[in-house]
Structure formats: structure tokens, C-alpha cells
Amino acid sequence: MSYMHSHAKEYVGVSEFHGPVSETRIRKATKEFIGEIYQRPPVRSAVSRRLRTREVFYFDLIEMRGRRMLFKIGTESGTYVRKIVHDLGLLVGTGAHMAALRRTMDGPFVEREAHSLWDVAGALEIYRRRLDDYWLRSVFLPVEVCVSTFPSIYVKDSAVASLCHGAGLAVGGISSFEAPIAAGDVVAIKTLKGELVAMGKTVKDDSSMMRDKSGIAANVGRVVMDRGLYPKMWR
Amino acid sequence: MANERGWRRPRKLIVREESETSWEYGCNPRSRPVDLLMNSASVVLDKQLGPTSHDVVATFKGLTKIGRAGHTGTLVT
Asked: Which of A75, A156, A179, B17 could potentially form a cystine with A206 if both were Cys, beta carbons 3.0 to 4.6 Å apart?
């Protein structure tokens, strides 16, 4: 099960219109793409070509130069921006294609925190030579960062080892959690120190987690923490 | 604009039962030993036009001498 591909994305791109079109007309047309939209994945795509809905959070025109438009778009995972640009071209009547696209945000990761391969090489070299881990830690982010978009459930020390072995999370093992949580949500199960133990899927919502005296609150999916880091405390 | 960003929903911490954690094992993720950190870290890479994602992952693996590296950033346009 992959949790990392489901994040919302932001892109900056260039769209080229196939004829003269006014900025106000384009601005008006971009509004039509905000919210739930229908999309059929393109012929050359990695997924089945069934009509599906995707959410566009925002679609902003940044600058026009001739027939070219610089734009920024925030979308749900799995939205084809190339398709939106094509459809925008149809809507304004000239036709359009995408000339360039760059992802500027992916879940918790943003462009300004991106590093080049040179930064990676430098950070590793400094660490190897001087055992100074400052740069290494600024480039290599702990796994907790990439699941920070999911709500957390913090568990007692006594529950950690059994979770590492794949056992379900019992309500009795929960210390605190981030509301709102619905049944069926993907959650990050963490220790009280904030370390990721495993990803899980809830079977109870936040109010039953508070109310119930026993039972399983979440099933464990991928276990991230090494077994043996926390001691076994069950009998 | 902030409200339109569906992935930045505010969350509230609710305590079910106060509990203490022992510092004899585990640690704060930010001070995790480097060898453990490198087992499951993420790196945000600025991919330039030209080299493919596959090229970048290959170079990255060479640099880190890590056996296992992948990417989530395939730009599906």
C-alpha cells in the first residue's frame, strides 16, 4: 500500500494558446475548473481510462505574454494538468497546449526546500569527513515529515512493540490523537516522542476512540519502526 | 486561499489518557541517529529539465551508496 502518492499537488506551468485571446476571458474560464471536475485519463497514461472526478483547489493566472500564460494550480492527486490546459483552450475557443510544467508542492514538501544533487553530495561529504550532521539533517528529512498530512494517533510505550509486530491498535493503547478522524481514515501511528511506528487505517472514529473501553481502533498497514527499538511489554 | 487548500485542514489534539514515555529507548525524530535516519528518510530533490527521474535516482543511489532508493515524484502530466 502506498501512502506517499495520495498527496495534493501544486504546479506552476506555461500554457500556450493557439490563437489570440484576452486575459480577462482566460481569467473567467479558469474559474470553471475550480472545484470537482470530471476527467478521463489521457490515452498515454498509467491508469485505467475511466471517467473520474478530481478536485482543483485553485487555478491562478500569474502572467500573460502574447499567447502564453504562466499559471499556478493546486490539485488533488491524480489530476491531469495537461488535460485541464487542453480543456481551457477549448473553453476559450482557441485551443491550447501545455508548454512547461513544474511541480512546486507535493503534500508537505515545497519547492523552496528542495535540494540539488550537489547539496546531497556536499551534505554527505561533510558528514563523512567531519561527522558534522547539520547539513545531512537539513537534506535528509525524517520519515515523519512525509506523513505529516495524515492525522496522528499517539500511543503509549506499552503498545509500540506489538504494533511493530503488526498487531492492531487497541483503544487502550491510545494516549491522544488529532481530531477529526473518521472510520476508514489513513492515520500515522506515533509514539509519545513523535516517532512514526506504522501507518494504519481506522475502524473507529474519534468519538468512539474516546468513548469505547475496548476494541480495535485501527488496523496496521505498513510498519515503519524497527522491531526491538521499544521493549515488549505484553505478557 | 488558505481555506481552499484541502490538505491543510486544522486538527485538534485530543487526549484520551495521559501517559509518560521512557527515554531509555527511542528518541525525538529530529535527533534520530544518522544510520537509523538514513534507513527511512525523504529528500526533496530539485529535478532540472534534462535528466530523467530514473537518472536522478541512479545518481542519488551512487552518492549515498544506499541500496534502496525510489521516488514518488513521477511527473504525470
From this structure: A179
